[in-house]
């Protein structure tokens, strides 16, 4: 065996030849296992890609008859055209997704309106103004908030907050879109906070030093230099928060009131896409039009969150490029 | 003038932070205050009685433990392998890297209820029914909701958590270690197994713990894949249904036959679930901090 030159491609597999047949076969065996492991690991990387396709395929497949027009009582076209009612359990079932989409966006928008100012301000405080020891307490605390299961947040709003909110604000309905939005904001705050805080911390120190050296105050530096520099990351934070809010299930299922009402009023109950699936799939007849409609809702959710996720990723990449140059 | 505006601004951001922390405090305080009285050794070791207005929550704790155990057996090895790909094998300009990265990021953002649909459509209707047709002559054995399929569904959901945590730990191992090992004639496989993985052990632990904490609390994916409202027996087979802590909270809060009577039990159940997830999360944080200290030393 001739010793080969060391190049980038054989860096790992090339080895100094040893004399004797025994050493040679041992080396070959090692190299064989090395290659085997490499193939094994690449297979799992491919499997990770496969899973995301499988999810889409197996969720969309159940909804496919709606598009082909072979499902009973429901079709893709009729789920977007008038009459705009979602009445799955009636003598003449009606499956229209418009009230559900409206409900979803209503609740999501309320949640974002509450969560965004709080989370952005808190991230700004943590990254720019807080003393180090305070920062070391705030970040784990918000991680704990992120770790609270959503069913617990739903429980808290339902059992503890809802009645209090109703008597304070005089809601006609105890459970409504506003209550759900408030509950949902608890789940969204940690995401927006974490992504924003990461973006602000990624801004190099010399940005701040240059600004301070020019006579700007710490607040001016934060507002006019650091925040704009981190803006793509903040865009990513809002998009990812939006995605999380749209897909969140247990909170809205428990506290939104679950009535599919076509209304923009935030104080009436709302029914979201995710809560509809959760509430109805348990009692549905396998293969029925209703069953297929619920999978269509799932497909819509999957597509929306995938697009949002992809957009969030792009914004995050743009942040890195902006701060550290193209990679 | 400028200092006044500055102070107001800092003050406002501080107040926002306080509001968030206060909400966390109110939730925890409230649950502890209302949940502590009912909590006892008996509560966590006995089964619900009297239509869930008396007794404990042992079956739910047992079911959750079994669920996360089965889930980890699938999610941790799979996640570690993908993390090894990312940290040790991938080239950043390759197509496989970009696609895998995109898939994992996307997976992390898929709503949990969609995982539930996937579990039902894929694991139960396709794999489970397939096994039944092939091995049991069409008899319903695996083609129905069970702890096995719930655990597999949960494993897919927690996979990104494991991957991201382990990858971070692998990347924290200094490059010198790899070079030294390779220079001594070890193959890449030997380097990973004998040098890098032992160094990144804490990361694997953290990944598993975070996945378990997530799996213990998620409800939406198990709604249709195996969680049961109430079961008089404990799950002993892979195709048994099970009770889960998070689902139990949901059931007690929304579908209890007697809401007022089950309220104390509800609060105590939430206290148990919260304590569990907090303990897991704090453990993960401590291990991670320890690791970061090592990395900078």
Overview of this protein structure:
Chain A is mainly alpha-helical. The model of chain A has no long low-confidence stretch (mean pLDDT 88). Helices cover 70% and strands 0% of the residues of chain A. Chain A is flat and about 80 Å long. Chain A folds into two domains: 1-70; 82-324, MetI-like (MetI-like fold, Orthogonal Bundle). In chain A, helix 4 (150-169) crosses helix 5 (177-202), helix 6 crosses helix 7 and helix 8 packs antiparallel against helix 11. The longest helix of chain A is centred in the first third of the chain and has 48 residues, at 21-68. Chain B has 297 residues and is mainly alpha-helical. Chain B has a single domain, classed as MetI-like fold. Chain B has a two-stranded antiparallel ribbon with strand order 1-2. In chain B, a hairpin with a 4-residue loop joins strand 1 and strand 2. In chain B, helix 8 (201-217) packs antiparallel against helix 10 (259-296). At the A-B interface, helix 1, helix 2, helix 3, helix 4 and helix 5 of A face helix 1, helix 2, helix 3, helix 4 and helix 5 of B.
Helix percentage range of chain A: over 70%
Number of strands of chain A: 0
Q: Which sheet architecture does the biggest sheet of chain A show?
A: none
Low-confidence runs of at least 5 consecutive residues of chain A: none
**CATH topology value of the largest domain in chain A:** MetI-like fold
* Rg over alpha carbons of chain A: 27 Å
* Tally of individual domains of chain A: 2
For the largest sheet of chain B, list the strands in their spatial order. Answer: 1-2
Mean pLDDT of chain A: 88
The average pLDDT value of chain B, as a whole number, equals 90
User: CATH first level of the largest domain in chain A: which class?
Assistant: Mainly Alpha
- Multimeric state: heterodimer
Q: Percentage of helical residues of chain B?
A: over 70%
Order of helices and strands of chain A: HHHHHHHHHHH
Main beta sheet of chain B: strand number and arrangement?
2 strands, antiparallel
Q: What do we call the CATH homologous superfamily of the largest domain in chain A?
A: MetI-like
Helix and strand sequence of chain B: HEEHHHHHHHHH
**Which consecutive residue ranges of chain B, at least 5 long each, have pLDDT under 50?**
none
Outline type of chain B: globular
Query: What is the straight-line distance between the termini of chain B?
Result: 45 Å
């Amino acid at each position: 065996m001739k010793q080969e030159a060391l190049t980038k491609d054989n860096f790992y597999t090339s080895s100094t030849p040893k004399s004797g047949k025994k050493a040679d076969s041992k080396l070959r065996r090692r190299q064989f296992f090395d290659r085997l492991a490499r193939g094994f690991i690449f297979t799992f990387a491919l499997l990770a890609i496969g899973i995301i396709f499988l999810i889409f395929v197996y969720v969309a497949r159940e909804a496919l008859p709606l598009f082909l027009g072979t499902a009973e009582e429901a079709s893709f076209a009729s789920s977007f055209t008038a009459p705009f009612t979602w009445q799955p359990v009636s003598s003449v079932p009606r499956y229209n997704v418009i009230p559900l989409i409206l409900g979803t966006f209503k609740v999501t928008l309320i949640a974002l309106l509450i969560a965004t100012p709080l989370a952005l301000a808190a991230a700004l405080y943590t990254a720019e103004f807080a003393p180090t020891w305070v920062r070391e307490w705030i970040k784990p605390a918000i991680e704990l908030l992120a770790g609270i299961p959503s069913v617990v947040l739903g429980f808290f709003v339902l059992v503890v907050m809802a009645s209090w909110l109703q008597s304070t604000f005089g809601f006609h309905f105890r459970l409504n879109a506003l209550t759900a939005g408030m509950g949902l904001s608890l789940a969204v705050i940690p995401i927006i906070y974490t992504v924003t805080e990461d973006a602000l911390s990624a801004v190099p120190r010399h940005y701040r030093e240059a600004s301070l050296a020019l006579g700007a105050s710490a607040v001016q530096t934060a507002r006019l230099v650091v925040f704009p520099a981190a803006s793509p990351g903040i865009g990513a934070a809002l998009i990812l928060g939006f995605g999380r809010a749209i897909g969140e299930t247990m909170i809205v299922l428990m506290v939104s009131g679950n009535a599919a009402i076509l209304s923009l009023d935030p104080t009436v109950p709302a029914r979201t896409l995710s809560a509809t699936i959760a509430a109805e799939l348990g009692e549905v007849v396998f293969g029925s039009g209703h069953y297929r409609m619920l999978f269509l809702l799932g497909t819509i959710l999957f597509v929306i969150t995938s697009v949002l996720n992809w957009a969030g990723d792009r914004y995050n990449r743009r942040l890195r490029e902006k701060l550290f140059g193209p990679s | 003038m400028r200092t006044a505006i500055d102070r107001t601004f800092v003050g406002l951001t501080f107040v926002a932070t306080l509001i968030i922390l206060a909400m966390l405090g109110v939730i925890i305080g409230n649950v502890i205050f209302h949940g502590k009285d009912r909590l006892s050794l008996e509560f966590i070791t006995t089964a619900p009685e009297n239509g869930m207005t008396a007794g404990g929550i042992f079956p739910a704790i047992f079911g959750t433990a079994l669920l996360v155990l089965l889930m980890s057996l699938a999610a941790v090895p799979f996640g570690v392998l993908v993390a090894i790909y990312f940290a040790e094998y991938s080239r950043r300009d390759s197509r496989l890297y970009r696609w895998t990265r995109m898939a994992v990021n996307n997976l992390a953002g898929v709503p949990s209820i969609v995982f539930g649909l996937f579990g039902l459509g894929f694991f139960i209707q396709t794999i489970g029914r397939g096994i039944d047709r092939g091995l049991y002559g069409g008899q319903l054995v695996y083609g129905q909701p069970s702890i096995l399929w719930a655990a597999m569904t949960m494993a897919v959901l927690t996979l990104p958590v494991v991957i991201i945590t382990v990858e971070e730990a692998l990347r924290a191992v200094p490059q010198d270690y790899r070079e030294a090992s390779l220079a001594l004639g070890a193959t890449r496989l030997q380097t990973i197994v004998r040098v890098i993985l032992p160094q990144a052990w804490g990361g694997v632990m953290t990944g598993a713990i975070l996945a378990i904490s997530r799996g213990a609390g998620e409800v939406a994916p198990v709604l249709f894949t195996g969680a049961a409202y109430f079961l008089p027996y404990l799950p002993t087979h892979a195709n048994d249904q099970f009770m889960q802590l998070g689902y139990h909270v949901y059931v007690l809060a929304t579908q209890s036959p007697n809401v007022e009577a089950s309220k104390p039990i509800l609060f105590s159940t939430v206290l148990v679930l919260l304590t569990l997830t907090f303990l897991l999360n704090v453990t993960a944080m401590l291990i991670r901090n320890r690791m970061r200290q090592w990395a900078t030393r």
